[in-house]
Here is the input.
Amino acid sequence: MTLDTRRATRGRAVDDASFEAAFRACYAARFASLFAYLDRLTGDPDLAADVSQEAFVRLHRRGEMPDQPAGWLVAVANNLVRDEQRRVTRQLRLLTEEPSRAPSGAPAADPSADLEREERIGAVRAALDRLTLRDRQALLLRHGGYSYREIAAALGLAETSVGTTLVRAGHAFRAAFQEMHDASE
Amino acid sequence: MHPSEATLLALIHGELNDDAAAAVREHLSGCGACAGSEAALRESDQEIAILLRSLDHRAPVLRPPAPALRPRFRHTALAASLALLLAGAAVAAVPGTSLNRWIRSRLDGAPPTAPRAAPPLPAPAPASQAQAAAGVEIPTPRTLVVSFAAPEPGGMLTVSTGDRADAALRAYGGDVAYRVGDGRIAVDNRRPAGRYTLEVPVTLGHLEVLVGARRVFDSAERPLGANPDSVSLSP
Here is the structure.
């Protein structure tokens, strides 16, 4: 083994060790927020957990950290969700969809409160569905704790246009929710 | 010139730099219309946060993924495995025999084969041991006050609840010092980390986060949900 080869091998080992440390730190810091975003986006916690895990597997396979790890993970996860939803759409032509799991939180003590809660959740989800996909994703990312820079990286936006997107998405969401709420009364 | 709604929202989100934030605040102090818009946007933002929280499910507790061995490791690992297997045979092999020569030829150039999965990665190291995250833990607090010495432009604290007995605050980067008292964590963040996580027990009665003398989070006003909550540490 030549001296140059030994140096190169040692350098690679250092790179690997620092990647592993960075990956673990990223997983500890980012898994929960990625899951939370996907949970709200899809309404399916099982899918959200699977996609979050798969996004991190792909990051590990990549072998080096991207410039914007949080944005990179969301971009990969968004693609995985899109692929999964296309697959499910095909299946639903033949199958009947099972009701999704109820969100967490304190279970309602009486049926009327339970019903009210379900209606509220339905209205929130319906209002979200009224938004364009990009506005919905931006709104959910912001309220999942992502910075404007991370949102821009995840959605392929200019960082300067994230604020405008969020204002538009916020107004549209509130208007749609109000309409759903009024319609249910 | 009046700031746009996007600028006001960026101020609320702590996304403006110090100079821009100061300029907008100065404008708000003298412009009732913009101050009203800012207040309405802030209220709307909080209402949206509450509505979206109703969708949350509890995050699963998962270990880091156990992906297949990365390509750069494959040849080395396979060569090492083959070397171990063949080393046993080499002990019995007489030097200079054809078997010995065959072993040497295999050790010198192990052919690549299909990759195999690595064993699962261990769970992340505790905060005190992790290189990238340093933190502090308080056992079984009933209430908790976390106070940051100074604001951090763009700084973010992610608060999450879990089935745990202690509260753990971690900083990712920077050079942060902690003082821990009875139900209090004081964070000296003059060399800021930018990103922090706070994990608290689901049973925690009350949580308050202060930046300097300013209260930026109060669980009495913003109840802790199943999913992480983000608290801006910006000025």
